[in-house]
Each structure stands twice: as C-alpha cells, then as structure tokens.
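Title: [Solved] Oxysterol-binding protein 3D structure

Original question kept below for reference.
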Amino acid sequence: SDHMENIYGYLMKYTNLVTGWQYRFFVLNNDAGLLEYFVNEQSRHLKPRGTLQLAGAVISPSDEDSHTFTVNAASGEQYKLRATDAKERQHWVSRLQICTQHHTEAIGKNNPPLKSRSFSLASQGSCNSPGVQRRPSQNAISFFNVGHHRLSSGKRVPILQPDHLVDVREMMSQAEGQQRDLIRSIECLPVSGHLTSLDQDLLMLKATSMATMNCLNDCFHILQLQHASQQKGSLPAGTTISWLEPKISLSNHFKNGAAQSFSAEINKPASVREEQSVSEPGQLTREAEEINPDEELEDISDDKEDDLGAVEEQRSIILHLLSQLKLGMDLTRVVLPTFILEKRSLLEMYADFMSHPDLFLAITNGSSPEERMIRFVEYYLTSFHEGRKGAIAKKPYNPIIGETFHCSWRMPKSEVVADTGSNLSAPSSSEQGTLAKDVEGQTELDYYTVKFVAEQVSHHPPVSGFYAECVERKMCVNAHVWTKSKFLGMSIGVTMVGEGLLSLLEHGEEYTFSLPCAYARSILTVPWVELGGKVNINCAKTGYSASINFHTKPFYGGKLHRVTGEVKQNATNTVVCRVQGEWNSVLEFTYSSGDTKCVDLTKLSVTRKRVRPLEKQGPFESRRLWQHVTESLRDGDIDKATEHKRALEERQRNEERLRAETETPWCTKYFLKEGDGWVYHKPLWKTLSTVQAQQVDNN
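Solution (posted by the thread starter after getting help):
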C-alpha cells in the first residue's frame, strides 16, 4: 500500500500516576508490524525502551480530548499516547490502523482456524459439574470465514446472508454458556488446598475467557453493522430484523408502537421478561410529563449501606475483577459485580444532595451579595454528607439512557432562615396565583415546594442532567455531570466532569459551580469513600467567588475527609469567610467580622423527599425501572439481582444497536443540548419571563 510507509516522531506517553506524561520518540515499523519507542531521537540506534506487536491490536482515539489515543495490543499491553494536535493524532491513528489491519490479515491467511478441541477442568470441592466441552459444529469454518474477504480491484465483496449471522449468533450463545460453566467450575473450587478458586492462573483464565467473549461480541456487532449498511433502505419501517436478535422488534423506547410478546421469552421469569421487552404502549412517549407534587408521598425507604457481609463473601469476585484491570483504565464500559451496588440509581443520588432544602432556600434570603455567596457555600458543603448512604463505598446503579427520576420536598416556611434586615419584595398575589396555580379561595400554603427532575441524557459518554426549582422563591439550579471512572490500583477514582448553575432570579444573580472527584479506597478490605480536588464557585455579577479544597488523606498521618475553603471579593481580593473541617462531620466557618459558626452535619435535620408510588411511575423512572434489582438486593439474593440487572443492560445494548443501524437519533425528554452542556427544557428563568410578559400585555 502507498500508505505503508514507516513514520516516526515525538508523542507524549502516559507512564504512571507518579511520573505522568513524558515525551518519547516513537517509530512505526510497518515491515515488522511493530510500534517502538525510545527515550529520544538520539537513542534511536539503541534497543527500544518498549515494543508493541500491532497484529490484532486495537487503535482507539480517546473521547477525553482531540489529542489522545490508545494502542491496545493483543497481548493486553496498552500505550496511552497524546499528539500535539488533532491533525497529528489522526495521522498516527490512520497509519497505525493500516499497519494493524495488514498484519492481522496476514496472520489470518497464514493460520487457518484450528480444529475443534475438547478441554475439561477437574472439578474439586463441593461442585460436581461435568467437564466443559466445546461441541464441534458443521458451520465452524463458515463462522471464522464470515466477513473475511480480501479486497481487490474489480471484485465485489460478497454480501453477508442473514442465515450466516443467525448461525454465528447460535454458536456464540453456545460459547457463552460454556464460558459461564467454566467460571462456575472455577468458583466452586475450595478456597484452600492444592488448587483453589483464587489460583492466579485460574483467575487469569477467567479474565481472558471473559475478554475473548467480549471481543467476539464486538466483532459480531461489526458484522451486523456491515450487513445493515449493505441492506440500508431495503427494510420498511417497523420490520422485525430476525437475524439481528431473533424475535426482537424495534423498541418502543425510541419509536412508539405496539408492544410485543415473544414466545422465546416464555421460560424466563415475568419480571425479567418485563425488563428485556418494552411493555405498556403509550407510556413510553418522549414527550415531557408534568409531575403533580400532590401525587408524591413522603419517602419511607431507608436503605443504609452499612452491610459488609456481601463484600467479605465475594472476595474472589473482586480478585477476578482486579485481574482484568490496568492502572488508569477507564471503567465506563466495565461491568462491575452486583453485590457492590447501592440500592438506588445515580439519578436518585443527585436528588439526595438536596436533602437540606431549608439551607438551599435560605440562600436567596441573604441580605447582601456577600451573605448570599456565603450561604451558598454553606449549603454546598453540607450536601455531600447526606448524598452518601452510609460509610461503605458502594456504587449506585448506572442509569440507562432515557431513565428519569422525579421527587420534591415540602419545607415549612417557618423553618427557612429569613433575611437579616433587607426588605426583599415578596411575590405579588397575581404571581402567586399564576405560578403556584392555587385553587381559588385556598388559603396561602405554609410551606415551600422544591421540585427535582433528573434524566440520563447520554449513554456514551454517561451524562446526567438534573434540575431543581422553587417557584415561590424564584430560584433554580441546573447541572449536567459526566462521570468518568478510573482504576487506580487499590482504589477507584471518579471524576465529575460538568458544571452547575444556580439562578437567584429575585436578585438577577447566577452562580456557577463544579463538583469534586470521588474515590473508593481499600477496595479489597473495607471500602470507604473520600472526596478530593479543588472546586470553584463564581458569581460574575457580584464579583464574589469561593475556592474549596477537598483534601485526600496523605499516606502517613493526616485527617480523613478534610476540607478547607475561602470566600473572597474579587475586586479587592478580600477574604470575607474561611471554612475548615470535615465534609461529613463538623465544619467551622470564620467570618470577616471575627465571628465563628460550627455546623455538625451529623445533627442537621434531613427533610425526606416525596416520591410518587411505584404504580404511578412511568416504566423508565428510576425506582420502577430498577425495582426488581433493588428488591433482590434487599433480600440478599445477589444472583437474582444480577439476572435482573443483566436484563436491563442487555435491553439497553439492543436498543442502542438498533438505533445505530436504523440511524434513529436519540431524543431526550426533559433536557436540551446547549453548547457543551444540557439545560432543562422549561427552566424557571424562561417561565417567569413568559409570565411577566403576559402580565404586561394584560395591563
């Protein structure tokens, strides 16, 4: 090929957490199919510092930025690289992919598929499962040859036939079953003795067999996309694509239509069938639904996550998971074991950050810009304690795309801290009547209502949008968060990428803020959570800002969960408030006047949120969507919870695949894309403007 020239140059290579990124001189050796690197160009004549075989490798541009990409070798070794700009990255990625394809095809031609082999694992201990065998198939050769065509000028690539893919799917299902049997056989071995379930070779066998099946599923997906592109436009809308997933029709989750019942699903539990298929036509519209707070009832569930039993009992699963991970690896697509899950969705966790609505509502009552900024910082720092359920580091459910969560809080007006002397204008009677929609003759309510809605607006990358408002106090908050998780050895780090915006419409002020990183520490013993990183809060109109540092515990000494911060007036660079303490214990605020205030977070009153009963929730509202997983976790039935969780995830994958093949864009329900962020479709600053404009017209 004309593009098969050797290329070389400097790239940045990620080394480790301590050293970070370093410049290295890379050489692409097309003849040998090698990517080599040296300390610098002058040492090029010496032995390379590192070498990757490109045959069978995967070259992946990163979604972190436009400069980074990874080279994942078939051996499992990975290089994370960064070019100087997007153009240079594209140059390297395209040349690496061409070289990789050439040498991978060469291996395929020189090494025909192996004959079927049988293998067995001697069962030891309490399980007497038979040896696992791979059954020969008449279609084995056609399976390995499907889609493997040598491109040449003047020859047309044969079109894949649907029955080929059905055969492949059947064989892969058999292989998946055999792989599961292998895993069970290993896990049934005793934990002590000559050959144990924690044997390093067996853990590696579990990891590699799982990785192999994942790779085969990815390849099968590519074949499906190839066939779909060749048949594009030949299928009428609504057609059941039998070769893709037998007896699964286009999902109502992205296209309204009649629900189907499938005979192939009869043997599954009813709850699993409900999760894998889409029921209740008419309720799955993407039209935004107005939730009536009067239908919501005070939440009585109390799912504290203090149980260590499951973690102790599932140590082998944790070790198996660790055997698959590498330092710095993105965990977004890694399926984590069910027993480490909290009994709530990530969307509900964001709602639990609002568990002190009295402090939230008190922000707008501040008599000056300085006091309002300080009150916001006080509320911000008290929100994380209740957002965590217990001291144990467990993970909330990953929301599926289109999942929503609604709730509200009722806060007695007498319990909200008033202003300190300002004569802020209360809403007029006409505004109260229009906005609160009070029934004629009803006495004024003695409580404020804070409404909350969250939606999973994207799956890859995983982005959530959430919005809360109090119409009576003319304040609202809008935020979007992209959760990026990384494996850090004995801990897991989660970066919360995104931004929030608090609007105090009564004052015409907007406060932008970010969120700290979260870390799950000591994942092999007693996992616990700590927050880390620097966050900023800014109000452009008033010129006040806050800088808050969440300190991670040093290796030797130091306190846990420490936080420090300061509020300053930017124009004069004057610090007006300092804060120190622990974000889950006691915070001490020191003001410019010399006064101090201590807040014991463990003694703060928590206002329970109000949620509609399950029977009134839509099928994609968090609690109803995950109800069978939650019930199984409460009952301690991890296997059943895993089965329900897998059904939900499989449905999401099927729907995503179908949308891609039919080129059907995903439509969000409550949030709209604006630039790099997501904004609620009816924010209070728009609805208030509309109401005020109507009042002007009426006058």
